[in-house]
Each structure stands twice: as C-alpha cells, then as structure tokens.
Amino acid sequence: MMNKAADAGANAVEARALTVVRGDRTVLRSLDFTVGAGRITGLLGPSGCGKSTLMRAVVGTQAKVTGTLDVLGHPAGHPALRPRVGYVTQAPSVYLDLTVRQNLDYFAAVLRPGRAHRSARRDTVTRALGDVDLASHADALAKNLSGGQLSRVSLAVALLGTPELLVLDEPTVGLDPVLRRDLWDLFHALAADRGTTLLVSSHVMDEAERCHRLLLMREGTVLADDSPDALRARTGSDTVEQAFLHLVDTAATRQENSR
Ligand SMILES: Nc1ncnc2c1ncn2[C@@H]1O[C@H](COP(=O)(O)OP(=O)(O)OP(=O)(O)O)[C@@H](O)[C@H]1O
Predict the structure, then answer these.
(1) What confidence tier does 129 reach under pLDDT thresholds 50, 70, 90?
(2) Which residue in 54, 58, 52 sits closest to 70, CA to CA?
(3) CA distances from 84 to 93, 111, 112, 188, 197 (A)
C-alpha cells in the first residue's frame, strides 16, 4: 500500500526561512528546502553543521524554531503527525534488559494496545524483525548486541507504525560495508514498495550517491538542494564529495569578495 504523502511531485516537508537558535548560537540560518514525498533525501555535511538540529525541528522536538516548517501538511510537531512520523536518533532507544522481540512487542503494544490487536501486533513485529535482518537475534538480550545491531533494533521500532515519513539520524554509523549496503537496500525498498519518505543524515559522502536528492549543509546553511547527478554536472565533479568541496570553496570566495 502506498502512503498518502507519496503522491507524484508532492512534498513531505517544506521549510521556509527555517531558523533555530540553541543556547546563544543561531544553529540553522533561514533555510529554505523541501523533502519530496516517497523519495530518499540525504542530509549531508560535516559534524556540527546542524543535521541533527534540522531533523529535531522536522520531528517537532526542537525548541526555538522560527520560520515555516510544514510536515505532511501540518506544522512540524502537530499531534496529528505522531503516528505518521518515525524518528531514529543516533543513540539507540532500546531497553537493554529485554530481548529484541520483547522490545518490539513492548513498543508495538504502546502503538496498538489491547488483546484484539495481538495477532496483528505479532505480524508487525515479525515484519519489522525481517526488515532489519534481525530475525535470527530475536531472542537475544539487547545488552548482548553489537552497536550496529542495537541501532537496527531502534530502526525496527520506528518501522512498527509503518510511518509515512522516516527521519534517520546517521543510521549507518559503525556498520560494516555489507550491513550498510543492506540498510540502503531496505531504505530503497521502503520508498519504492511502501511509498515511505526518508530523510537520512550522514557525514559519509559516498552514501550521498544512494539518495534521490541531497541537501548539502555547512555551518547551518544549505549549500545545495539537488540530485547527485545534477550536483556533479553543475560543479563539473566526478563525485558528490568533490562537488561539496567545490561548493564550499565557491561560497568562501563569495564571502571574501563581499567583505
Ligand atoms: N544545546 C546546545 N546549545 C548550544 N549549541 C548547541 C547545542 N546543541 C548543539 N549545539 C550546536 O549546534 C550545532 C549543530 O549541532 P548538530 O548536532 O545539529 O550538528 P550535526 O551536523 O548533527 O553534527 P553531528 O554530525 O556531529 O551529529 C553544533 O555546532 C553544536 O555545537
């Protein structure tokens, strides 16, 4: 079944003049961008450029947000969005003293309480375990899992509700190349088969090539909002990494000249 937000050409997220202040710093500076529905948008940029802050704003957990930020047709953080948006933070949100399946059973029961939904919950948990390739570890205690396995349990929790928008903060950190490839295959399957919109952050530029569209960030600004192909062509670069460096240099030169 396709999600409602995956209509051709629709935007799942629309930001205008999005600004976020944290402490006494302006961390996001008047950003304008969109995230296409049913597509994978990569949020890339160096550590500290504001990726997590932008994601927190989109899921509605960030304070001091100004400008306009609409998510699936509602202002970010609107209560109607709670069942429609999945968010996986960098720190896995998993109970370490429970098994993988017990964690998923617990969160599934929070989402769909009641005996009447028991069989549907069991199916959802089995599907989520398969999605993240952890069926063989279903009965392992979470505290005995590796970091990569733990982050996949977190992802499975987010998949339980079949969210229309999935916001993933650096989901592939610490994973080996095979698991990284498998996770990206899963992201593509979610977009293609379920119409899920994915906003995925990474500071690994080679992951950019796997996205339909990229938001390249630096120091709280969006340097580019384009497809990987268009970005390479526009900057005459062979890789997205080179394109990023080209854009950083161009922005620096422009700044120098304006002084
Ligand atoms: N509570 C806070 N008060 C003030 N500044 C903060 C606070 N939290 C984060 N920052 C600053 O906001 C900026 C953006 O942080 P953010 O975590 O969004 O970056 P990021 O691109 O996600 O980094 P990383 O890839 O390392 O996770 C950083 O410079 C950080 O130091």
Answers:
(1) very high
(2) 58
(3) 18, 12, 14, 19, 11
User: pLDDT category, 188, cuts 50, 70, 90?
Assistant: very high
The ipTM of this complex is: 0.95
pTM of the predicted protein model: 0.91
Ligand 1 centroid to 219 CA: how many Å? 10
Q: What average pLDDT does range 184-204 have in this prediction? A: 93
CA of 28 to the centre of ligand 1 (A): 10
What is the best residue among 43, 49, 88 to mutate for testing ligand 1's pocket, by most ligand atoms within 8 Å of CB?
A: 49
pLDDT number for residue 87: 95
Does CATH place domain 1-79+164-259 in 1.10.260.40? no
Q: Which residues line ligand 1 (CB under 6 A)?
A: 22-23, 25, 27, 45, 47-53, 203
**244 CA to centre of ligand 1 in angstroms:** 20
What's the one-letter identity of residue 110? V
Ligand 1 atom nearest to 56, measured from its CA: 18
CA distances (Å), 28 to each of 17, 50, 62, 107, in order? 9, 6, 12, 32
Residue with tokens 């295959």: 185
Domain boundaries, the chain: 1-79+164-259, 85-162
